[in-house]
Amino acid sequence: MMRAVVVESAGAPSKVVEIEKPIPARGEVLVRIAASGVNPLDTKIRAGAAAHARHPFPVTLGIDLAGTVEHVGEHVTEFSPGDEVYGMTGGVGGIQGTLADYAAVDARLLARKPRHLSMRESAAIPLAFITAWEGLVDRARIRAEHTVLVQGGAGGVGHMAIQIARSFGSRVYATASARKRQVVEQFGATFIDYTSTTLKEDVARHTNGVGFDLVFDCRGGAVLDASFEAVTRFGHVVSALGWGTHSLAPLSFKAASYSGIFTLYPLLSGEGREHHGRILREATRLADSGRLTAWVDPHEFTLETVDEAHEWVSQGFASGKLVVSVCVC
Amino acid sequence: MRALVLKAFGGPENFELTTVPDPQVQPGTVVIKVAATSVNQLDIKIRQGLPIAPEPPVILGSDVAGVVEAVGSGVVGLSEGDAVYGCAGGVKGSAGALAEYMLADARLLARKPAKATMREAAALPLVSITAWDALTVTRLRAEDHALIHGGVGGVGHIAVQLAKIIGAKASTTVISEDAGALAKSLGADDTAVFVSEAVEEYVARLTGGAGFDVVVDTVGGNNLQASFKAARVSGHVVTTNARTTQDLSLMHGKALSLSAVFMMLPLLTGAGRERHGQFLQDLSRWVDAGRVRPIIDPHRFTLASAPDAHRLLESGTGYGKIVVDVAPDLH
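^ inputs. structure came back:
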């Protein structure tokens, strides 16, 4: 048996229950979870406001994990018991989430965790890093000569995007609130306050009026519209939250491109999972060479205080990614 | 010289055949004795006053085929008497081809295909550069399956042929079985008659339900939603018309990319013009090798009757590219 956090229905409080410990099927490994990263999507799923995540109640939430391989199923050659791993492994698509002592995980989704990062730091990385990588690298094909604007640079995805862009040698600008200025600067971006100035003036000031080669939007809505305005001719906008209705005209006269990033698809469909494992190996490579770290709120939540963590995310109280410590083993 | 001058934005009745001073050659340019020009949808919108339109009174006509009459200083690779073609004016900053002579930036031109007539050469540049921009921005590869909307339309029929040169599989939507047969004669692998077969149906029939790797949407606007449906997950839609407001939720849920092409940018900004000339050199080779050919409407027009060429294109009853013979003796 093991502990798992269960939410019975939309809006209900979570509770810790005892359930059967999963048995890894062919291609899966059993991970003993040390830490589970909290993502804003978790709060939307438990509110019943994320149909696209296809995670029907009762649910065990938690998309990201870091932990230790306990044993491996058939046909798994890459991992052995005792390996420290991390990944974006469930909590959507009806797959058990990571707010539990164990998860049976498709081995293609995992990578070895960064050597110099803790379990808590590692658990803050997968979804955010994969989203940022798919946008900047897979879609927009970032290069050193690009100037990059990250809209929402102090968020989970945003601070990953800044670090990835910096690792490619790009010049990076990031919008954030004034109190997060040091955060985006610490990761190597030039700070742009999105409350006190208009983006138009900043685009003019930082790019001689021509616009940014690449704009990564972590916020959607009006910020995506502003991103379409801020991109240069033949430039590329990517968004992690492009669900709305938007005027495409600003892209049209600039012959620009726009990509939606929907990182859940491999979990929902089973297709393309090895690509997620591959991206996380890039994250490990960057972290091991000191070019990637996770900004984690020092407050340590447990399986019993998950509701509080979700409340912090909803209210915007967090300073960095929130991580639930599952096991201190 | 004789020229068809647009006196004010509006309908084709605003054109007037008149006499204007001959253009004088400038550094980096050539003066072309115009043999033929073709009418594009963009010419219609420019005539109506699109923001990129030049201020009337002005000479329109972007595509040109003709003979180099004078060569400006600094021009390399072109000489007096060369037969050339290009998409070289008719937008803000440069006069067009509905005149006996046209001044053109040499970087936008290439020698016309030896085996093409002046009429054929004049039909090609704008639509071919547009199709090439579309396939290039999507990085279409030989292993891809492309859907091209409007496979016998101006941009569409060239996009089908260029997709085949890349080696990709090319399917196309058409309005009728006859149009489908024509598209297949140009190399299309499969066709779907969009008035009788729903998107879901042809996606199932042609891709087993997976969707197309690349969708070239020459219609744009609300047709983009059909293109989002037709694309595979993580696929790429490219359009010549992204000027509308669209619900992007389907696009986001499939993690699609959407690119806008706007082939006039180098004419408007001055940047990247040599790419157009270089591409047209490649296109000449493909035309001479029989790998690309334009579809040309059989109606004939002159400088004087060019307003009727605009009317024919607007009526939607034209067929392929509509060409105006400015100097039939040069053909």
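The longest strand of chain A covers residues 28-37. The mean pLDDT of chain A is 95.
thumbs up if we can close this ticket
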